[in-house]
Amino acid sequence: xxxxxxxxxxxxxxxxxxxxxxxxxxxxxxxxxxxxxxxxxxxxxxxxxxxxxxxxxxxxxxxxxxxxxxxxxxxxxxxxxxxxxxxxxxxxxxxxxxxxxxxxxxxxxxxxxxxxxxxxxxxxxxxxxxxxxxxxxxxxxxxxxxxxxxxxxxxxxxxxxxxxxxxxxxxxxxxxxxxxxxxxxxxxxxxxxxxxxxxxxxxxxxxxxxxxxxxxxxxxxxxxxxxxxxxxxxxxxxxxxxxxxxxxxxxxxxxxxxxxxxxxxxxxxxxxxxxxxxxxxxxxxxxxxxxxxxxxxxxxxxxxxxxxxxxxxxxxxxxxxxxxxxxxxxxxxxxxxxxxxxxxxxxxxxxxxxxxxxxxxxxxxxxxxxxxxxxxxxxxxxxxxxxxxxxxxxxxxxxxxxxxxxxxxxxxxxxxxxxxxxxxxxxxxxxxxxxxxxxxxxxxxxxxxxxxxxxxxxxxxxxxxxxxxxxxxxxxxxxxxxxxxxxxxxxxxxxxxxxxxxxxxxxxxxxxxxxxxxxxxxxxxxxxxxxxxxxxxxxxxxxxxxxxxxxxxxxxxxxxxxxxxxxxxxxxxxxxxxxxxxxxxxxxxxxxxxxxxxxxxxxxxxxxxxxxxxxxxxxxxxxxxxxxxxxxxxxxxxxxxxxxxxxxxxxxxxxxxxxxxxxxxxxxxxxxxxx
Length: 675
Known about the structure:
Elements: H1 2-15, E1 18-26, H2 30-41, E2 46-49, H3 57-61, H4 81-84, H5 112-125, E3 130-131, E4 136-143, E5 151-157, E6 162-170, E7 176-177, E8 189-190, E9 205-209, H6 213-222, E10 228-233, H7 240-243, H8 255-261, E11 267-270, E12 276-280, E13 286-290, H9 291-294, E14 324-327, E15 331-332, E16 369-371, H10 389-408, E17 414-418, H11 422-432, H12 434-438, E18 443-449, E19 455-463, H13 470-474, E20 482-488, E21 520-526, H14 532-536, E22 549-552, H15 564-579, E23 585-586, H16 588-597, H17 603-609, H18 619-627, H19 636-640, H20 651-658, E24 663-664, H21 666-674
Parallel strand pairs: 1-2, 1-6, 2-3, 6-16, 8-14, 9-10, 9-14, 10-11
Antiparallel strand pairs: 4-5, 5-6, 7-15, 12-13, 17-19, 18-19, 18-20, 20-21, 21-22, 23-24
Helix pairs in contact: 2-10
């Protein structure tokens, strides 16, 4: 009878009507809402499933002590909205200026409750298609050759309602607490439930398991009321200012480091948590011992029969009993709802808390399944900001652009410019682009050269991990070579053991730009699009294969790469060497002379002067050019001498002999025009 009932229920479920959508997004957190925005702007058929009654349910609980560590910088001294996003780590991308986080909080480190309210407004003001109180409990595949990816995704919610989707976008984040099981782990309190009232810890001795921001956040909250706090983890502390990874320990939470190093009772220890054991004495105190001490113990014996490490080593570091032990080990991805047919597998090593995905953010096991947001952080774990809002808002946009090309034939957005604008285009982007800046080493601008290098096509913020697939992923062609613009730190400047404050840590001269340590632009030049094999064989820690030429723009203390001599001139000469052309800008007089004296005109003259384009001459412009040293001060008499105006004998020779051609970068021309 049970088997019959079970079969009956399965048949009923399989026969139930499916609600179809082209795109199904699981999770209405920041990344899910960000993807919903792009899908809605493109007019696609989509739905977002959210198990809670409101978006951003993770932030309704975490961080437990309510202070976010994502900065909310109100002032930058600039009005450029794209530049300002470099220092706004909380806003999602949209066309609505009301949905900038600075309108919600003025705190540098905002309260998490404000984030919840912000996400609610983002979903409601933009009228995103979010289906609340819908927990997806099972996901499987249905093979169909007519489907986009050769199969449909079948989703079932808690009420056994079924949904069918052509593409599945997983934006659930990592929310399952990491738990280490060892003898006595039942005495451990979890970060997700521990009290946040410091008075509950008054006069107590506390052991914290973990060494991330949640562990130090918990310690910071009770630092002033406890007897002492010890913190145990398998690895040494990783300071974000040394690793340049925002997920490592931030200064706002590191008060325990002070009290440890200044010998105020608190302390940090390293050890494998799996090797520990906790035993409780008759007074309710918790003692730390090692697992192997308990392996041959009679389980019916009392506490007094247990061997503790201090019985053999009387100065054992954790010999003092603890009142409480708190687990703060972070979170992992929930794999439980995915059927085996999807082959959603955890990563390896430090990335086992994330699902395995490609650099395109598509699952390695199933075509058409993309992972967004924090859960996609395996692509750049401890390398860039892809696990945080200020990083995955850009990677989510990149995934949307890949989907638009794959399923709807919409190529990656691009702009075509004449080659004379190459230097200016690069300088503009490296000085204001927020996606390049936040997702350094992961997203890059791509410049595709046209035939004979007369023009170029500019693509913004493409994932460099799939550079070899650029033509198929973007719908753009790269037959004539390309430049890749990316932001990087120095090769040996980041690490838990690095001293990032040593003398002479910064480089100031352009000729030493390749030794720059701080974040700076790097331009790679390839005569041909790199292959898959070249991508796999690239040097360790290099984001790209070895290029035909490479150029570092020297680091800048103000992150302002507009200095004519230090930044622009070396870049222009690098580009000229790669393209075997002259990218300088000229006055009309110089172009006029080149027509008579050169076989090949510089692009600026060929695309401007010859086509009757460029600056219109005037006496005011001439006076300014002379005063600035851009042109020689000459008059018609300088060229004609004592000859009559209609005498042309030797005039060209005289012109070439006396007229010194002045050449300056474009910004001087613009200044001259403005003057």
